[in-house]
Automatic annotation (TrEMBL):
Location relative to the cell: Cell membrane
Keywords noted in UniProt: ATP-binding, Cell membrane, Membrane, Nucleotide-binding, Transport
GO terms for cellular component: plasma membrane
GO molecular function: ABC-type amino acid transporter activity; ATP binding; ATP hydrolysis activity
Membrane topology per record: Peripheral membrane protein
Protein name from the UniProt record: Amino acid ABC transporter ATP-binding protein, PAAT family (TC 3.A.1.3.-)
A Pfam cross-reference name: ABC_tran
Entries under InterPro entries matching the protein: AAA+_ATPase (IPR003593), ABC_ATPase_HisP-typ (IPR030679), ABC_transporter-like_ATP-bd (IPR003439), ABC_transporter-like_CS (IPR017871), MetN_ABC_transporter-like (IPR050086), P-loop_NTPase (IPR027417)
Length: 244
């Protein structure tokens, strides 16, 4: 289970998160939507301490972090329970698709080369890139690079996978191949997924719950039906501006 209590984040005088409370059960798929600048990406980055929260508590399973009372070991334990897929792929340019996926298994989990290679090949096959095992990022499309990024996140068997607008850097014709990989993950319900996305039709389709954020706060959360049929005028305007 992921539990967030009283989470706040400020950058100097700018308060980006103003008090977030959110509980996500194991295996749930939760999409986070809302206008640009709402604090969605900052929320994800705080969950795995890429950004250090100003206030609040984050709990994932048996790891509890309270702002101002954290040691390196606790932060490391939290990060081992999460994996993040970024907007801009963040692949190692000097490593092949196979090596990019092997890297966290070897460096973070201490897996030997043979085990890591076997598992990485299983992952490449599952994301439809078996034939790209020896290809470097510069020779892959954006969609293929992002699928490798997802594969690298899958490699560490995280309890929580965080997707930060995973299709925002892609050309329109490449978006669906990435969404298909996320759909396959979501359908298994074996890990918790938090997805910041502007793909409204996709969010409506795959999510158990949807969270609408604006101005650093959660305005409403509920099932896709509750959010897309919300009586809140602001949410109506937002989802009404996108064909779903």
């Amino acid at each position: 289970m992921l539990k967030i209590e009283g989470l706040k984040k400020s950058f100097d005088s700018l308060q980006v998160l103003k008090g977030i409370d959110l509980t996500v059960e194991k295996g749930q798929v939760v999409s986070i939507i809302g206008p640009s600048g709402a604090g969605k990406s900052t929320l994800l980055r705080c969950i795995n301490y890429l950004e250090k929260p100003t206030e609040g508590t984050i709990t994932i399973g048996d790891v509890i972090l309270k702002s101002g009372h954290n040691r390196y070991k606790k932060v490391s334990a939290l990060r081992r329970k999460t994996a993040m897929v970024f907007q801009n792929y963040n692949l190692f340019k000097n490593k092949t698709a196979l090596q990019n996926i092997m890297e966290p298994m070897i460096m973070c989990q201490g897996m030997n080369l043979k085990e890591a290679e076997d598992k990485a090949m299983e992952i490449l096959t599952s994301i439809g890139l078996k034939d790209k095992r020896d290809v470097y990022p510069a020779h892959m499309s954006g969609g293929q690079q992002q699928r490798v990024g997802i594969g690298r996140a899958m490699a560490v068997n995280p309890e929580v996978m965080l997707f930060d607008e995973p299709t925002s850097s892609l050309d329109p014709e490449l978006v669906n191949e990435v969404l298909e990989v996320i759909r396959a993950l979501a359908s298994k319900h074996t890990m918790t997924l938090l997805i910041v996305t502007h793909e409204m039709r996709f969010a409506k389709e795959v999510s158990d719950r949807i969270v609408f954020m604006e101005d650093g706060l959660i305005v409403q959360e509920g099932t896709p039906e509750e959010i897309f049929n919300s009586m809140n005028p602001r949410i109506q305007r937002f989802v009404g501006s996108v064909s779903v």
